[in-house]
Design goal:
two-stranded parallel sheet; 38% helix; alpha/beta; seven-stranded parallel β-sheet; single chain; Rossmann fold; 18% strand; 2 domains; UDP-galactose 4-epimerase, domain 1; 302 residues
């Protein structure tokens, strides 16, 4: 089977590509390298340096004829979405429409789309399940949720299956520490440089951290199951930022302490995603807890 991965040179997309190639899938990658890196691209993949908004995308679909599309290309920076909402909408919404149009025109069987926990906004209850209210707090949250609606409509109008994921906080090798990089990557970068990481607030805020290898496995599973459904992909475990720092400090043998700064306006105190639907309906479960995931990450980057 042939799978086209948009954003396949990026953090999560490249891990999905590696797993699929290891499982002997044919993999095609489309990435404009705005945040992805050439060194992340598996040598066995066919690579097209291209923006998903490009009219030339149809030439890739025409030539490669993928059966499945895993659509990871996106504008992922919240602050960019606030400062440049037009760009955010063009990439995340219009780019997705371009991908969908090509899926329909070239007979793709299924599209897999990673939405975001950002679409839920401030939690009304915890853990957040897939039926939770949708109330984005940024343009980014809106631009990740809107494609869900497009995908459902295309799926109902045409013979195109889909699976929509909503990831919790993903971490692992290749994650960028620049800009709004994940807190795990930022902490790692600072501690390896011998500098104290910054914790905003008192560190009691909680998040649900999931290892990228578990996310890749979920993408592999839904190539053959989970049609036309939405799944949270998470550990369903809450971890305070203080605990995250403590575990990373031990594993990195960091001698210093964290610095504490004022809470950031708009930060959500607690966010945990329920993974019960994925556990019940998919042949999937997270294999890594925080300690083993961090060990795997650090080992991979030695």
């Amino acid at each position: 089977m042939k799978v086209l991965i948009t954003g396949g040179a990026g953090f999560i997309g490249s891990h999905i590509a590696d797993l699929l190639i290891a499982q002997e899938f044919q993999v095609v990658i489309v990435d404009n390298l705005s945040t992805g890196k050439v060194e992340n691209i598996n040598k066995s993949a066919v690579f097209y340096p291209m923006d998903i908004r490009s009219d030339s995308l149809q030439e890739v679909f025409e030539k490669e004829k993928p059966e499945f599309v895993i659509h990871h290309a996106a504008q992922i920076d919240v602050q960019t979405s606030i400062k440049q909402p037009k760009l955010d909408g063009e990439v995340n919404i219009l780019g997705t429409v371009n991908v969908l149009e090509n899926c329909i025109q070239h007979g793709v069987k299924k599209i897999i789309y990673p939405s975001s926990a950002a679409i839920y906004g401030r939690p009304v209850y915890l853990p957040i399940d897939e039926n939770h209210n949708i109330s984005p707090m940024s343009q980014y949250g809106i631009s990740k949720y809107t494609p869900e609606q497009y995908i459902r409509v295309y799926s109902s109008l045409y013979d195109l299956k889909h699976t929509i994921f909503r990831y919790s906080n993903v971490y692992g090798p290749r994650q960028a520490h620049e800009g709004e990089g994940g807190v795990v990557a930022i902490f790692q970068h600072m501690m390896k440089a011998g500098q104290p990481p910054m914790i905003f607030g008192d560190g009691s805020q909680t998040r649900d951290y999931i290892y990228v290898g578990d996310v890749a496995q979920a993408n592999l599973k839904v190539l053959t199951q989970g049609d036309n459904e939405i799944f949270n992909i998470s550990t369903n475990e809450k971890t305070t930022v203080n605990r995250l720092f403590s575990v990373m400090k031990q594993q990195l043998h960091f001698q210093g302490e964290a610095q504490y700064g004022p809470e950031r306006p708009g930060d959500i105190p607690h966010s945990i995603l329920s993974n019960q639907k994925a556990l019940m309906q998919l042949d999937w479960q997270p294999c890594y807890n925080l300690k083993t995931g961090l060990q795997e990450m650090l080992q991979a980057e030695k």
